[in-house]
Design a protein that fits this description.
Largest sheet: 2 strands, antiparallel
Binding site for heme: 72
GO molecular function: heme binding; iron ion binding; monooxygenase activity; oxidoreductase activity, acting on paired donors, with incorporation or reduction of molecular oxygen
Keywords: Heme, Iron, Metal-binding, Monooxygenase, Oxidoreductase
Helix content: 10-25%
Family: Belongs to the cytochrome P450 family.
Low-confidence stretches: none
Cofactor: heme
Length: 123
């Protein structure tokens, strides 16, 4: 999946300082390039939602909708779209665990030992 923002660039304001990072003025920056760097995301081309689990990447490395006062208004639409999709998926399918009697790992919350593979069948 390729982001349409890959060709969208921003320029930094004069001499911005972000916490411990100093960024020289007039640096051209692309949001998409930061999320495609191996140093932040190992195997960035691979779909891996678990990379955000636990410590995950540093804050603000992954900002698909931007941030601050100019956050993309599509952010709220995308959240609502996912809720509607999950609502219909939950109501229209039966869910059965693939692994029965699986062990539980107790960390901050109880988790299935091998994830939660399920078999979906249409009702």
């Amino acid at each position: 999946m390729v982001s349409f923002t890959s060709l969208s660039f921003s320029f930094t304001d004069p001499e911005p300082t972000l916490e411990v990072f100093y960024i020289p003025a007039s640096i051209m920056w692309s949001v998409n390039t930061s999320r495609m760097k191996d140093e932040f995301f190992p195997e960035p081309q691979k779909f891996d939602p678990l990379r955000f689990q636990g410590n995950g990447p540093a804050p603000y490395v992954f900002t698909p909708f931007g941030g601050g006062p100019r956050t993309c208004p599509g952010n709220e639409f995308a959240k609502m779209e996912m809720l509607v999709f999950l609502h219909y998926l939950l109501l229209s399918h039966d869910w059965k665990p693939v692994i029965t009697n699986e062990g539980i790992i107790v960390e901050t919350a109880p988790l299935p030992a091998h994830g939660l593979p399920v078999k979906l069948s249409k009702r």
